[in-house]
Write a structure and sequence with these properties.
- By secondary structure, this protein is α+β, with helices and mostly antiparallel strands.
- The protein has two domains: about 5-85, Ribosomal protein L6 (Outer Surface Protein A, domain 3); about 90-170, Ribosomal protein L6 (Outer Surface Protein A, domain 3), CATH 3.90.930.12.
- The chain is about 20% helix and about 35% strand.
- It contains two helices and 13 strands.
- The strands form four sheets. A four-stranded antiparallel beta sheet has the order 11-12-7-13, with helices on one face.
- Strand 9 (about 110-115) and strand 10 (about 120-125) form a beta hairpin.
- It starts with 8 loop residues before the first strand and ends in a 14-residue tail after the last strand.
Length: about 180
């Protein structure tokens, strides 16, 4: 029995949920946007409008399978993230640390000057927005996966190095520093 999969996903009143059993698709629409997810065929998803909750389940004879329990819990977690995303949204904050290094917002393009001989331009995916405030870059959007992926791509352009701490890091990230060479 999946501990996460058995819990129903509560749906707030300002969120619309549509479940299409034929194509195994669930659509969630709320104030922050609209998301769609195609779940696995072995997991059945039902939306009870009277209770305002989404319930995921798998057949009784397959509840001992580790693979099916994992799919069950994953599907429920993805739906819960979709509901939270269209209501509150998700945010990742990055910090650009380095002398003369900066980030600039140019429409849907993020321009990074991080020590290369050329600026690095990154195009934000649909539904993802970013704001630049000094050395901080705030990436927001309703889709948790896209926000996290875009933040990881930005960070990968110049990950923090352990000697001086220069680079692009998450705001809550702790970089383990190393001692440099000692003269002796």
């Amino acid at each position: 029995m999946s501990r996460i999969g058995t819990k129903p996903v509560p749906v707030p009143g300002n969120v619309k949920v549509a479940v299409d059993a034929g194509s195994n698709t669930i659509k969630v629409e709320g104030p922050k946007g609209k998301l769609e997810f195609m779940h696995h065929a072995d997991v059945s998803v039902n939306y009870a409008e009277s209770d305002n909750q989404v319930v995921c389940s798998i057949p009784e004879d397959r509840r001992d399978s580790g693979r099916d329990k994992a799919l069950w819990g994953t599907t429920r977690a993805r739906i819960a993230c979709m509901v939270q995303g269209v209501v509150d949204g998700y945010e990742k904050k990055l910090q650009v640390i380095g002398v003369g290094w900066n980030a600039q917002a140019q429409g849907k393009t993020l321009r990074l000057n991080v020590g290369y001989c050329h600026p690095v331009d990154l195009q934000a995916p649909a539904g993802v927005e970013f704001k630049v405030d000094g050395e901080f870059v705030s990436i927001t959007g309703p889709d948790k996966e896209q926000v996290g992926q875009f933040a990881a791509v930005v960070r990968s352009k110049r990950p923090p190095e352990p000697y001086k701490g220069k680079g692009i890091r998450y705001v809550d990230e702790y970089v383990i520093r190393k001692v440099g060479k000692s003269m002796g």
